[in-house]
Amino acid sequence: MLRRIEWAQWIILAAMFAASAAAWSRVGPRVPMHWNIRGEVDGYGGRVEGLLFVPVLAVGIYALLRVLPRFDPARANYPAFAGSYAVIRLALTALFGAVHGVVLAAALGAPVEVGRLVPVAVGVLFVVIGSVLRRVRPNYFVGIRTPWTLASARSWDRTHRVGGRVFVAAGLSFAVAGLTGVPALFVTALVLDGVALVGVVVYSYLVWRDDPERTPAFGAPPAA
Questions:
Q1: What is the pTM (predicted TM-score) of this model?
Q2: Do 2 and 94 lie in a common domain?
Q3: Three-class DSSP category at 30
Q4: pLDDT tens sequence for the chain (224 residues)
Q5: Opening angle at CA 162, ends 84 and 191, nearest 5
């Protein structure tokens, strides 16, 4: 499965560059790159910036997420959630591919409802992350890393179970807001989801506070 997920990411990245190459001579010198909350274009870039920024950024993020585990002091834990980590990376790459597709479509003059498509894409990303978050094992780069989840194995486990549900709920709210196309609904979802995520951080503290053992998430420290 891991190899298939890796191949899927390579295909998405290659397709982004191939699509940019195919559209290069068909787009004008000004490429839409930014939209406001109402889905109206309010920022443009040149052909190079507009057609290559997202693909290059996607490659950079892909490479970064591939090498980060090597520098993590808790890298021994990564094999325990390798599948979940791969799914998260694939979801991020797919989001970049979707955003690039929106940019290309707009640059080619196609009617694109950015106010609907982008929130839905972000919502799907949150749902995917939330669905695998409970399986993420302690590390310094992936997951809900607060001072309390890192200081308590109980807080890490419980916070990631609750946080996974919050991420799924946040993703669904983003997707629904996007499908309705009502900017006020999206802002409301953004605010409520922000409050919920803060609540997850507070929850991590409460679990740590009530943990009688407070065994660090990475195991008991060596004896002095």
A1: 0.90
A2: yes
A3: coil
A4: 788 999 999 999 999 999 999 999 898 888 888 877 777 787 788 888 889 999 999 999 999 999 999 999 999 999 999 999 999 999 999 999 999 999 999 888 888 888 788 889 999 999 999 999 999 999 999 999 999 999 999 999 999 999 999 999 999 998 998 888 777 888 888 898 899 999 999 999 999 999 998 888 876 544 43
A5: 105
Same domain, 55 and 87: yes
Q: Based on the fold, state whether residues 55 and 105 are members of the same structural domain.
A: yes
Helix residue ranges per DSSP H, 72-135: 82-107, 114-132
CA distances from 8 to 81, 94, 97, 122 (A): 19, 9, 12, 19
Residue pair 6/85 in contact (Cβ under 8 Å)? The answer is no
For 35, list phi and psi in degrees, rounded to 5. Answer: -130, 150
Q: How wide is the angle at C-alpha 167 spanned by C-alphas 160 and 1, nearest 5°?
A: 75
Burial class for 100, CB neighbours closer than 10 Å (0-12, 13-18, 19+): buried
CA–CA distance, 13 with 127 (Å, rounded to integer): 22
Give the 3-state secondary structure of residue 43: strand
Residues 220 and 170 in one domain: yes
Q: Return the number of other C-beta atoms located less than 10 Å from residue 69's C-beta.
A: 19
In three-state secondary structure terms, 44 is strand
- According to DSSP, residue 77 is labeled G
Domain boundary among 112, 132, 158: 112
181: domain range? 114-224
